[in-house]
Amino acid sequence: MTGDDRYASVRYVVDDVQAAIDFYTTHLGFTLNASAAPAFADVVRGRLRLLLSGAASSGARATPADASSPGRNRIHLPVENLDAEISRLRDAGLTFRSDAVSGPGGRQILLSDPAGNLIELFQPAQ
Asked: Looking at residue 6, what is its pLDDT?
């Protein structure tokens, strides 16, 4: 295999690339790395490179038709204060897909991007 090992890359198929760019850069601390909207964009947060593929992109066209809805997979974004993040994002008008839950490793909550892809906000246990 070859590639740029600076980042772990995840592809999300989205129905509106610009809406996805706005969502990730405005609310979740990503920066725009490259854009060929409306087909494709590349946003980065730390070592995570998120590839946002619209319908005209090769990544979306290679996706089988029966895989048209988001799965149960999600990106995992650690946060220092989950309650503060929940308040900030609710104040921005975002809707969560779950309630906050606690487990032995910490607390988490799920929200979705404009296309329905899941994002897990996670605060590790102290």
From this structure: 83
